[in-house]
Amino acid sequence: MLDLLNSGGSFMYVILFTSIGALALFCERAFFLYGKLSLNMDNAFDKVSALLSTSNYRAALEEVNRFQNHPMGRTLKSGLLKAGKRDKDIEQAMQESILREMPLLKKRINYLSMFANVATLLGLLGTIIGLIAAFAGVAGASAAEKQQVLAAGISVAMFTTAFGLIVSIPSLVGFYLLNNRGDHIIEKMDEKSLALFNILSGLKREN
Q1: Residue 23 falls within a domain, yes or no?
Q2: How many structural domains are present in the chain?
Q3: 3-state secondary structure the chain
Q4: Model confidence over 121-144: pLDDT tens digits?
Q5: Stated pTM of the model
Q6: What is the CA radius of gyration of the chain?
Q7: 118-128 burial code (b ≥16 CB/10 A, e <16)
């Protein structure tokens, strides 16, 4: 491994540190979005909806409290706490909750895209510097040494390019996976908050 890194020059180590940062960020965000927020949102909402169908607000609130560590739980709770009030108040409470939760769901994900771009650019920069060094070395080398010096310089350039892409591609894949997971949760929150609003609004009209 060290031989491979040394073959690409100093830029290989910079790209390596970039890859470590990207991997650490991906693992932390994946654990949060796929682990801590692994709630089956459809099933959770169906239980709340079933309790509300019998106008059991207290039981519905207790059910929501069971998953209030999830953004959807906090959003639904904000709506239930406004039950019986104006439709506008219920809607605003849940919309404000969603707006508060969105930054938490998207937190630091964009850095993965940044790491991908940085790795690619570092690879290209290493390539350019490697080629400059190669041609500079050729200019001062004897006829017998020119081919060897040029081959060594091009080798350094290709190593940095390849390593930059090796880091960049998984980083971009990770970015889209996490970003899509965050979007999915937000979409579900919007869907379930609207459903809860319709239920509460209907119950209020019945009473």
Answers
A1: yes
A2: 1
A3: CHHHHHHCCHHHHHHHHHHHHHHHHHHHHHHHHHHHCCCCHHHHHHHHHHHHCCCCHHHHHHHHHCCCCCHHHHHHHHHHCCCCCCHHHHHHHHHHHHHHHHHHHHCCCHHHHHHHHHHHHHHHHHHHHHHHHHHHHHHCCCCCCHHHHHHHHHHHHHHHHHHHHHHHHHHHHHHHHHHHHHHHHHHHHHHHHHHHHHHHHHHHHHC
A4: 998 888 888 778 777 766 666 666
A5: 0.85
A6: 27
A7: bbbebbbbbbe
Q: CA angle, corner 90, sides to 87 and 96, nearest 5?
A: 135
- Asked if the structure places residue 33 within a domain, the reply is yes
Question: Which of 155, 169, 76 minimizes the C-alpha distance to 119?
Answer: 169
Q: Given its phi and psi angles, is residue 144 left (phi above 0), alpha (psi -120 to 50 degrees) or beta?
A: alpha
Instruction: Give the C-alpha distances (Å, rounded to integers) separating 142 from 149, 150, 155.
Output: 10, 12, 20
- Per the structure, the complete domain to which residue 11 belongs is given by 2-202
Structure tokens at 17: 């540190």
Backbone dihedral region of 84: left (phi > 0), alpha (psi from -120 to 50 degrees) or beta? left
The 10s digit of each residue's pLDDT in 95-115 is 999 999 999 999 999 999 999
In a domain, residue 61? The reply is yes
Q: How far apart are CA 83 and CA 202, in angstroms?
A: 11
